[in-house]
Amino acid sequence: MNKPLIIDYYSDVLCVWAWIAQRRNDELHSKLGENIQFRYHYIDVFGNAMEKIPNQWRDKGGYQGFAQHVIDSGAAYLDTPIHSQVWQKVKPASSASCHLFLKATAIALGEQASSELALACRQAFFNDCLDISQLSLLFQLAEQAGFATSKIQVALDDGSAMAALMKDYQSAKTLALKGSPSYIIDNGRQVLYGNVGYRVLQANIEEHLKSPTEEASWC
Length: 219
What we know:
53% of the residues lie in helices and 10% in strands. The chain contains 9 helices and 4 strands. Strands 2-1-3-4 form a 4-stranded mixed beta sheet, with helices on both faces. A hairpin with a 4-residue loop joins strand 3 and strand 4. It is globular, with a radius of gyration of 18 Å. The two termini are 24 Å apart. This is Disulfide bond formation protein DsbA. One of its GO terms (molecular function) is oxidoreductase activity. Pfam families: DSBA (PF01323).
């Protein structure tokens, strides 16, 4: 069996476009199965949300304007519902605490557990309007998923989770990624960024799957 195509996926848990992309990623897994392998990374988009949003949206309605932008962005995607009070009822200070917790989960329990918890965190924010910057909530979500939080705590305490998160953030800068989500396909042969449609993702990935790495790609 051929080795799976590696897709390095960079996202911010508070990014609405990454929330929308979640269903596309699930569909890619369903269609392409073991032919692809996602490696999950995090990028700093809302690391300082409490300053970013008021400053960048000062002339466009502040938090209320940004909240409406998020709701409008998701309105066309029925499979990614967004709570009507997102970014209004709760205003997470940072996505970094959640990213750190997810890296700790990956170290302690594996990438699959971390991926499942990342989805739970996104659902908690976009569906239930909960503040996923709060560590107490993150531990609660992990416990509800049946994960051993004591092992996650070890990775938080010994600095390994922080080191892994800083590696992600630094790699995103080195790669000059524009934002969330970003797909790095086949060790950098192609980068897809933003609200990329499912058919575009599928076509590009399938092109890489049928074209040996040493050959030139027409995609």
